[in-house]
Each structure stands twice: as C-alpha cells, then as structure tokens.
Amino acid sequence: MKRIYTQEANKHIGEQVKLCGWVATKRDHGKIIFIDLRDKKGIVQVVTEDNQDIGKIKIESVIEVIGRVKERPSHLKNSTSPTGGVEVEAVSVNVLSIADDLPFAIEKDKNDVAEEIRLKYRYLDLRRTKMRNNLHSRAKTIQFLREYLCKEDFTEVETPYLSKSTPEGARDYLVPSRLQNGYFYALPQSPQQYKQLLMVAGLERYFQVVRCFRDEDTRGDRQAEFTQLDIEMSFIENEEDVLELVEDMFTKLIEKVFPEKHVTFRKWPRIPYSEAINKYGSDKPDLRKNKQDPNELAFAFVVDFPMFEKTETGKLTAVHHPFTAPKITDISELKNNTMQIKAKQFDFVLNGYEVGGGSIRTHDPAILTAVFEVLGHTKEDIKRQFGHLLQAFRYGVPPHGGIAPGIDRIVMLLQNEPNIREVIAFPKTGDGRDLTMDAPSTVSEAQLDELGIRSIDKKEKKDRIK
Ligand code: ASP
C-alpha cells in the first residue's frame, strides 16, 4: 500500500490508508490510545486500541500505521488543525524505531531551550514545525531565485572552494595541501574573481548559490560560512542594470512565495551614502513606515559609497572590494584625490540590514593596478595575488558588474527570525563551533605529518613568538 502524508488524510475519508511518522503525543485513555502522528507535512490524530507495543513506546518513536480515515463527529472536530476534521482508526501499528527519553520536548517553545542544547541535538530541533517551515521557506526562496535567473538567461556555474585568498575584508580559512607541502588553499570569502573570470570567458550572465567562508568574530547575523546568491553580468551600462534586475526579482519573489508580506516602496529608493548617513545615521537605514508590522518590507539601495576608507589602524582599504570601479575621469585622481573618490558600489538593504552588496567592476588593467597600488600593494605582491586576473583582462574583457544578495539574512527577515542561525540547518555557535558534529576537533599526528604540519599548544606558541 502506498503511503500518504498526514495532510492528505482529509481526501481519503472512508478509505484504508498507510501513514508513517513520529509519535508527537500519546494520550492513554485506558483501552484506547490517541496518537498525534507527525510527518513532514503536519499532524493527524490516530486512534488505536492499546496493545503492548504502543502502550510501551515513548513519544518521538517512529511508527507505521495502517488504518481507516473517519470523519469526526462535529462536536469533536478541531478547527485549529488542517486535519482536525478526521482521525485515523488504526488497524495495525508497526513500530519502526523506538525513541529514548529526549533532551527536550519537541513542540515546546524553542526559546525555552538553551541554544547550545538545540544546536547539539539539531536533528531534534529541526523536527519543530517552526524550524521545518524555515527550511521549507528557504528552499522555496532559492528555487524561485534560481528559476527566475535561468529564465533571464543566466547560467549557473560552480566555482572552486579550494582556492586562493580573495580580499573581502575578513580573515581566510586556510586548508593545508598534502600534495604541495607547506602550501595552503584559502576557502573563498566570495567567488568574486572567478565570476569576473567567467565574464572574460564569455558567459555574460552568471549566477551561483554559493557558500562563502570568512573567519571573523561571529555576531548575531554572521556565520563562518554563509550562502550568497552570487550574480555577474557583462555589457551592462551602469549600476541601474543590476539594481533593476534585483528589484524585479525580489518583488516577484515576495508576490509569489511570501504573499502575506507587503513592500513599503513599489519603486525601491536609491539613497546616496552621504544622505543615508546624514538623514538616518546609518548606511543601512530601516525605512519601514511601521516598525511594529512584521510583514512590512522596506527594500532600498544605498549608492555612491566612497571608494576608500581607513581602518582603525589607519590602513587604507576599499569600502567594498578593490575590484569595484572608482568614479574617476583620470587615473591620476586615484593618487591625488584618494579619499574623495566615489565608487560604483551599491548596497542592498532591507529593514535596517545590509542584505547584499555589489558594484560595477574595473575592467581596465591599468586602473585596477593603480587601485592595488593605492591600497599599498607592492608590484610583486600584485603579481602574486592578482596576476591571473590582470593577465586575463589583457585578452578581451567585457565591461561587467554584479551583486551578491545574502540568502541567510534575507530568509531570516522574511521568516521574522531574530538571527540567521534559525534559517540555517546546521549553524555554528558564536565562537565558530559546530555542536552537532563537535567540530573543530583535533586530528591524528599521522594526518598532520602528511600535511607537514606540527601542532603546538598555546604556551609553546607564546614561547616561540618570544
Ligand atoms: N563579492 C561581493 C561580496 O561578497 C559581492 C559582489 O561585489 O558581487 O560582497
């Protein structure tokens, strides 16, 4: 017999069906036991006569039920549940897997359980309706964006994770090479250079749902690894070409996947950086009309950023990244007027969060080299770090630009969650640990030997630095 989902029970009144799932609750009424059976779609009530097996099993055990779907008498109907009008009278109940005592109750409010415990037992935490909905919404969002871009003639291309450092302003995660002892890959902070190389390759319109790795101190809306919808387009004339694509794509996403939401501005404002700072005191202003309304979405773009800024230590860096095109008419401005130069950069903001950033890129190798020089790179350094890109740009590069909306943050806001961990299946803690798998962890001496690496403890390291 083919299994049906709990939510399909309504369509099978009077028929015998097979259901599989978890025992969400069990109410023992002497001779009769009521079970709320949960599967991926929801819950349905099962009624069974007591028998040794069922009486004994703990909740969250996995069972298979064969039974007849019955309409409940009207006074027993439960209008709060989509299957509250029916119940399944079990003919047989087969226990597929017995659950132990649980570390926490599944349907209890997630805020009542310490996050460390939720993350350690994430596979149980994800059984909760709310968490399951978050994952479903995330999947639907990605599916919509993917279909939209494919229809618009974008090609999805996977770029390597084992790669070389590319500057996005964070520390790299390094991976030691066994075959090239003493050498390291860097996990990409973004596929920025690869996507630009794909423009040189003639792809013209690229996208990728891609993981990015940045070793920074994690905060509420940051993770060591996070997902971007990375986009790059050739032969675009100006920033508007990218902004219009993003505006149309996300407007349609909301209409189709999140119809309960409403957008504050039909045409999203483009706010110059200086105006954002002066008027709102932030480069990611919250433009909602009613901040109490969980369904309001105030999308906007911030444009006209400065090209360079100084870090706390006084070092010059690019506000976005060095590949962003500066708004200059002459290359000499880079050296003579450095701090006044604006960039062809745009940030994508939503309800007070930066949810993406992008730019028109510099495709002239002379200007790109000058930008690296202004940033303090030596000639050798430029060649070593960016030689491949500069060389590629000598073989015919189309003008290009792109953007990378952050999937985690956007889904977090669409699901009204307070942090991105709620919309990531297996997120890391604030200090970068994966509690489900217990990572990072030590490795064997043999593995280190193969990599040509010796582990030293902190004390020894201190000694060595001295
Ligand atoms: N690579 C950039 C980032 O990760 C996005 C872009 O400029 O397209 O922020």
Structure description:
- The chain is built from 13 helices and 19 strands.
- It has an eight-stranded mixed beta sheet, with helices on both faces. It has a five-stranded mixed β-barrel with strand order 1-2-3-5-4. It has a two-stranded antiparallel ribbon with strand order 7-8.
- Helix content is 27%, strand content 26%.
- The radius of gyration is 27 Å and the shape is elongated.
- With 466 residues, it is of the alpha+beta class.
- The protein folds into two domains: 6-97, Beta Barrel (OB fold (Dihydrolipoamide Acetyltransferase, E2P)); 133-423, 2-Layer Sandwich (BirA Bifunctional Protein, domain 2).
- It starts with 15 loop residues before the first strand and ends with a helix.
- The protein binds aspartic acid.
- Residues 168, 190, 192, 357-359, 402-404 line the site of aspartic acid (ASP).
Beta percentage is: 25-35%
The unreliable regions are none
CATH superfamily of the largest domain: Bira Bifunctional Protein, Domain 2
Quaternary state reads single chain
Distance between the termini: 72 Å
Radius of gyration, whole Å: 27 Å
Main pleated-sheet profile: 8 strands, mixed
Q: Can you tell me the overall shape?
A: elongated
CATH topology of the largest domain: BirA Bifunctional Protein, domain 2
Overall strand count: 19
CATH class of the largest domain: Alpha Beta
The chain-level structural class is alpha+beta
Number of helices: 13
On the 0 to 100 scale, the average pLDDT is 94
Hetero compounds? aspartic acid
Number of domains: 2
How are the strands ordered across the major sheet? 6-9-10-19-18-17-14-12
Helix fraction?
25-40%
